[in-house]
Structures are given as structure tokens and as C-alpha cells.
Amino acid sequence: MTDTNPGTDVLRGEHLSKSFGAVRALDDINLRLGRGEVLALLGDNGAGKSTLMKILTGFHQPTSGTLHIDGEPVTLQSVMHARSLGIEPVYQDLALVDELSVFRNMFLQREITRGGALRILDDRAMRRAAASHLERMGVNVPSVDVEISKLSGGQRQAVAVARAVYSDARILLLDEPTAAMGVRESALILDVIRRLKEHSDVSVIIVAHNYAQVFDVCDRINLVQDGRITFDRPTRETSIQELTGLVVNEYRSASEAVTG
Amino acid sequence: MAYQENIETTGAPRGRSAGEIAGDWYRRAIVLLQWREASITLAGIALVIYFQWTSPYFLSADNLGVLGQFAAATAIIAAGEVMVLVNRELDLSVGQVYALAPLVMYFAQQAGTPLPVAVVLALAAAAFVGLLNGAITVGLRVPSFVTTLGMLFFVNGFNLTISGGFPVQPEAGAFWKTLFGGNIAVQVAWAVVLVVIFQFVLTKTRWGLHTIATGGNPIGAAEVGIRTGRVKIGNFMICSVLGGFAGILDAFRIESVDPLAGGTEIMFMAIASAVIGGTLLTGGSGTVVGAFLGAVVLGILKDGFTISGVNAYTFDMILGIAIVVTMIMNVHISRIRAGGKP
Ligand SMILES: Nc1ncnc2c1ncn2[C@@H]1O[C@H](COP(=O)(O)OP(=O)(O)OP(=O)(O)O)[C@@H](O)[C@H]1O
Ligand SMILES: [Mg+2]
Questions:
Q1: Is residue A1 a part of any domain in this protein?
Q2: Which of A8, A106, B58, B204 is most exposed, with minimal Cβ within 10 Å?
Q3: Is A43 in the pocket of ligand 1 (CB under 6 A)?
Q4: In terms of pTM, does the model score above 0.90?
């Protein structure tokens, strides 16, 4: 997993920039993700983490820059295009529909249907598959038939993560997957990531605010500041103290610039 | 119907305490409230009982035919309006499409097209209006209230222009005339069949699921890869085609193709039916069966008042109150259903 052998990178972004009108959310980002690697993206609110993730899921198109998957340059046309290449996201807003049941959300846009072109929903098959998958993952919901609106914040997040994991993705993109979770649930999600790492060659990017939490599961850490990646190092070559220091220093120099 | 059974079985309390019976009633009430079409069904039953009591003529075959005349076309349009409302959009132009389709059919026939083909052309014209509604709303990000308001005026003017403002008579053999609703029983059958089909589409097919997802969480639906723009355009087309079809059915029944038929009157009745039937305007939630029952209840009210000699002005006042009251009830019932959460 070194720069001299880019063939092992499942995902590579070169000079990615993204502007929303006058707002430059991403500024010349270079990003790489090795096969089977877990990469943590850390950074302040508004740094551009979610925007970067949404470029990788095909939801946003970059203003400039290129993406490579397995060394091949690709332009992600749509979310479905990215999905067809094995990229599966958990968005920060979760992308769940309140009015639909847990199992219908789990199969949203990859429904099991019968009746050919009529696309009649095979609720029984989806209900069964969703229930057994959630149980295997240890996710606790009252029933797969309840509406999403009746779940707690943590349960909703668990369902969104379970949905992504269920898809047999090669690249999982998790945007703050444990933000609303209690200790037990966060441990559960991090454990799922650990298990994926051991038993498959899934590659993961995980956005987080809680450094300590992801420190144990990730192989490499990138720091996103102001639309740029300012720090890129394997986890074992850094420490929570160093990361905290970096962020605090930046804060200091920023406030000095304001006051001085 | 289930409700009436309940009355009978609890009518004879044998050796049970009042508390038990009250508990029973409470549980039944909760089960009933879980059912989305509950309020409109209760309202319908109560109104039938009331009008039958005031005038024994109410449930006669003749009068049921009159009721069907009002409810059938409204229910068909309401089915389309529900699909659009669940998408968190609105179609104000459907009443003009209701007049446009039979006109297109008539002129196609005049040009020598056989009737079945003329009907297909008429529905295609309706679909085209829906396509424009959807494409402008989605593609140019114009609120559908505005898009379809503009379309309302445009199609109205178009109808008057091509017809010269005068009604004409549809021409068809006995078979086609009957098939396309010349007989009120056939027209009601069309309404029932279409309502069943679209209730099924909304609740049991991928299209319906994506319609609910698009209205319930537009960004989330797009994030999982649903082509929300296409879903919306499709539902605008469904609504328009159903409006056009209802117009054709009514044209054969009334034996007149009137450029001023339908209009805002039937469009507002259809939206009122959807709303009092339990469809929320906030998207993501709706019921075609409820809208059908809503159309029937509006028909009962209108017809019942006519029989009892109440005039049309009073009807409008009561309709106005009914819309707001049922909306309040629906919002609160959804709250109970959601487990007390606001
Ligand atoms: N759709 C959009 N339109 C306009 N501006 C946007 C849009 N999405 C993001 N931005 C802007 O881009 C910048 C980066 O936002 P982004 O959501 O990527 O930050 P983030 O690092 O994920 O923050 P957080 O930790 O709060 O989730 C912000 O200034 C934000 O306002
Ligand atoms: Mg974010």
C-alpha cells in the first residue's frame, strides 16, 4: 500500500475541487483508498468532508479533477452508477424515508420485485431478508414493519448502516455513522467495520468527529481543513494527542489572525 | 362494514363489568384509528343514515345513479391527484384536461379516425399536458402550483379556441358508447376498477414506493438513486390521463363535448376528495381508496342536500367546513397513529 504501486488503490481522487456558486467546498483534494483499508476523515464542521463523500457516491459531480477506481479513470454519472461499481454510502442525513417501514427502507431502490415489468413488491421476501440481516448484525429494532419515524436516532443510524453493509459493497462510505448513537450502538457499528475488515476486502472511508472512537478501527487518517487535506498518515504513526494538537494549532493561528 | 359488526357484538354485554366493556371499546377505537380511511368511512355511514332517515328516496336505484354521476368522475380524477399529492406536488390543470380530451377525441373523429384510435389520441394529448407540467416543474424548478396554474389558463383558452366556444356531440356506436361510460353503472365500474388499480400501484408496486419516497424525503430518495424527477413527471402524466379519461366518460354520458365542462369546479372537488379521504398535502402519505370514499361522501352531501331542498350555497358552506374539519381530524389521527408524537 505505497504510492509506488497505485494498482492496489481501489479508489483514487486527483485534484478534486467542488464549488457551490461562490463557495469553494473542496480545493484540489488528492485522496486514495487502498484495498481492504479503513480510512478516517477527520475535520471541523463545514470542512468539506460530506461534500467529498458525495462526490465519491456519484451524488455530486466534481467541478474539476478525476476519479480512478481500480486504477481506471471513471466519471460517476449518478448514484446508481456508483452503486453498480460497488460503492455504497451511508449519508450523514441517512437518506431514510420516515413514512416507510424499516424493511422497505432497507431495500429502497433495490427492491425485490415480481410480476416482470409491473414490478410488484415482494414484501415477504424483503421482510424476511431484512429481519435476518438486522439480527445477524445485532441491530435492535422493535420489528422490521415499524415506520422509520418511530425509531430513535441511533436505531435509524443502525438501519442505514445495516442497509449499506447488506449490499455486499466493495467500498463503504460512512458519513458520521455513529453521531447519534449510544455507547453500545457505536461499539456495535465499529465492531461491524472490524469484522468486515477481517472477513472481506471491503475498503471503508469513515467520517468522524470523535477521534478516539475511530482510532482503533482505522488504518490511516486524513485531516480535512477548509476544503483541503492537510494531513495524511497511517494510524500507527500518529496519536490522538498529535491530531488534537494539529486542530488546536490551526484554531490558534486562525484566532491570532483575527485578533492580531 | 367492520364497524357495524362491532356495534352488534358489543350490543349484548353478558355478565361483563362496565370497565371491561369500556376497555374493549377503547381497544376497538384504537384499531379503527389505525385505519387510515376510518374518519371518512364513519362520516359516509353517518350521512347515509341521516339522509335515508330524512328521505326514504335516498337509497333508491334512481338516486344512487345520480350519486354515481357526481362521484365517479371525481373519484377517477382524485386517484390521479393523490399520486401527485403524495409526490408533494399539486395539479390545478386537470379540470381543463378533462375538457380537452373529449375535444381532441371529437376532432380526431371528424378527421376520419376510428373511435378507439381517437380515444387513444385524446389520452395521449392529456399525457402530453402532464409531461409539460412535470418537465417544467422538475426541469425548471417552478413550483407545481404555478406551473399547473399557468397550464389551467392555457388549456382553457386552447379548448375554447379549437371548439369556437360551442359544445359538440360525441359520435359512437352503441357498444363503444356503453363501454366508455354512456351507462352510469359502467362509469361507476370504471371508477372502482381504476381506484383499485391505483391503490395497488401506490401501496404494492415499486412505482408507488418511489412515489412515497420522493414525496416523503426528496433529498434522501435522490441520495439512494431514485430518479425523483422522472417519478414526479410520471405522476403528473398519470393525473392528466386520468383527468382526460374521466372527461371522455362524462362526455359520452352527457352526450355533449363542452369546452367549459369540468374546469376548476371538478379539480377542486377532486382535491377536496383526496384531502378529506386522508391524503396529506405534505407528501409521502396518501390513499386512493380514501379519496374515492371522499368523492362518495361529497356526492352524498351534494345529493342529500338537493333531496332535502337545501340550496347550493349552503352546500358550499358545509363543504368548506367539512374540508377543514376532516383535515384537522386527519392530522390528529396521524399523531395518535404515530404514538403521540407531534
Ligand atoms: N448543496 C450545497 N450547496 C451549497 N453549499 C454547500 C452545499 N453542500 C455543502 N455546501 C457548503 O460546502 C462546505 C462544506 O460542507 P460539508 O457538508 O462538506 O462539510 P462537512 O465537513 O461535512 O461538515 P460537518 O462536519 O458539519 O458535517 C460548507 O461551507 C457548506 O456550506
Ligand atoms: Mg458532513
A1: no
A2: A8
A3: yes
A4: no
**Ligand 1 contact via A210 beta carbon (within 6 Å):** no
pLDDT at A251 over 90: no
Helix H or strand E encompassing A42: strand A38-43
* Residue A202, in any domain of the structure: yes
Question: In this structure, what DSSP letter does residue B165 have?
Answer: T
Stated as kind and residue range, the H or E segment containing B339 is none
The answer, yes or no, to whether any atom of ligand 1 lies below 6 A from the CB of A47, is yes
Domain spanning B37-337, CATH architecture: Orthogonal Bundle (1.10)
| Residue A85 pLDDT exceeds 80 | yes
pLDDT of residue B16: 65
Would you say the ipTM is above 0.85? yes
Residue B224 touches chain A, beta carbons under 8 Å: yes
pLDDT at B133 over 50: yes
Residue A58 confidence (pLDDT)? 94
Atom from ligand 1 closest to the CA of residue A209: 25
> Could you give the CA distance from residue A58 to residue A54 in angstroms, rounded to a whole number?
6
Number of compact structural domains in chain A: 1
Residue A72 inside a domain? The answer is: yes
Cell of B1: 362494514
CATH number of A249's domain: 3.40.50.300
Across the interface, of A78, A96, A104, the residue whose CB is closest to B220 is A96
Residue nearest to atom 31 of ligand 1 (CA): A46
Residue A189 lies in a domain: yes
What percent of chain A is helix, strand and coil (3-state, nearest 5)?
A: 40, 30, 35
Segments making up each domain of chain B, as ranges: 37-337
Q: By the 8 A CB rule, do A79 and A49 touch?
A: no
Select from A94, A109, A161 the residue whose CB has the most chain B CBs within 10 Å, as the one to mutate to test that interface.
Answer: A109
The model's confidence at residue B3, banded by pLDDT at 50, 70 and 90, is very low
Q: Cβ of B334 under 8 Å from any chain A Cβ?
A: no
| pLDDT tens digits, one per residue of A46-60 | 999 999 999 999 999
Q: Which domain holds residue A240?
A: 6-259
In eight-state DSSP terms, residue A113 is E
C-alpha A240 to ligand 2 mean position (Å): 21
